[in-house]
Structure formats: C-alpha cells, structure tokens
Amino acid sequence: xxxxxxxxxxxxxxxxxxxxxxxxxxxxxxxxxxxxxxxxxxxxxxxxxxxxxxxxxxxxxxxxxxxxxxxxxxxxxxxxxxxxxxxxxxxxxxxxxxxxxxxxxxxxxxxxxxxxxxxxxxxxxxxxxxxxxxxxxxxxxxxxxxxxxxxxxxxxxxxxxxxxxxxxxxxxxxxxxxxxxxxxxxxxxxxxxxxxxxxxxxxxxxxxxxxxxxxxx
Length: 217
Known about the structure:
It is a single chain. This protein is α+β, with helices and mostly antiparallel strands. The protein contains five helices and 13 strands. The strands form four sheets. Strands 5, 8, 9, 10, 11, 12 and 13 form a seven-stranded antiparallel sheet that branches. Strands 1-4 form a two-stranded antiparallel sheet. Strand 9 (134-145) and strand 10 form a beta hairpin. The mean pLDDT is 84.
C-alpha cells in the first residue's frame, strides 16, 4: 500500500528502530534489513507526476510527447495492518553461479517477538498509545537435506485456546490486555507419523524454514 497522506510520518514506526540493535543472524536482523529505508537514485529514480507537470505543463501533453521527470526518493516497506497470525518464511537458498545452494545457517528466533519497530506509526489495528505488537510462537517447520532432496518436519505447541484470535480475525479488534510471556503449553516434534514431546530450547535451536506466531497484544 502506497501512503501519501502525511510525509512527516511516512517513515515513522510504532517503536524506535534504532533502539533495537538487532543481533546479526537473528530474525530481528532479518526483519530490520527487510524493512530498512532505501534510497532510490540514478537508474532507480522515481517517476514524479508533480515534477513532470511542473516542468512540461499539463498532463495531457506529457503522454503525447512521452516526456517524464524522475527524482531521487526514499522507500521503506512497513507493516500497516498487524495480522492475527504472523507467518515468517525464511529464504533458505542462495544463487551460486548457475546453481542454487541451500542455506543451513541457524537463524535465532524468540518465543515472543515484538513487531512494533517494523509497523508504521499509523498501524490500523493497533490501539492508540500502544508501542508494542507482541506475538507468541506456536509452530515451526524445519527442512533437512539439500535443494534436491530432503525431509520436512514440524514443531507445534499444544496450548490453551487464544480467546482473542476470533476478535482479531472476524472483527479486527485489537487486544487490550498486556501480555509479555509466551502462551503456556507443551511443544511436540512431528515427523511423519512419529510425534515426540520436546523442550522449548530444542525448538529454538532448530533451523527454521517457516515460523508461525499468534498475536498477543
């Protein structure tokens, strides 16, 4: 969504990004890089209708002459609507010449994550004054093997029902109660028909491919 309502708050977030200081190799660092402020210059300049009209006159003459003015700009992708369920998909491959190579590096991820540093200051379903948008981890998908073959397994948390999710999904209502702890429950590792109870530390040490979080606040 392209927002042009208020240039003053266009690059503002719910929480100060500079206070985050994310650790490299963490999901916070991935999100920080994905939502960083980018400068569009040289061949990446933005076509500016206002500048074009100011320079060449009325818009109907511009198209006939095919003359446009491009200007330097800034771009930043931020979250404008905090989802009830947050799914993070990690890119687990990289180009190596003409081949694709799997990335096996461990990416650190927490049981509770705050999306506020990555949300626009006018995030639609966050109550005014809130500076936290918290999510609790409930599922992880892991892939073992190579780009050519391998096996998918999952970690899932058996937990009590989150009574706030229906309000979020059906009515878009923002949760009001402050929760900072992960939802209590037992983690299980699922591999085909084999299911085994595991600790949270085992889950957090996995090489995550997909991460599933549910909103707390």
